[in-house]
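This protein record is not my work; I was only asked to verify it. Would you go through it and say whether the fold makes sense for this chain? Here is the record exactly as it was handed to me.
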Amino acid sequence: DWLLYAMDSPWAGNSRGFSRGSVYNRAGQLVASVTQEGLIRHRKDWA
């Protein structure tokens, strides 16, 4: 059988990003959902 993973990133800004995803089975039923948030910092001493 197979699973469909659909994801989007509804927001990014201020050195942060947010993404979410949904996993569906062949019948179209939601079987899992995921979210992730990331933070990016630029070090000034890394020239």
About this structure: The mean pLDDT is 93. The chain has no helices and three strands.
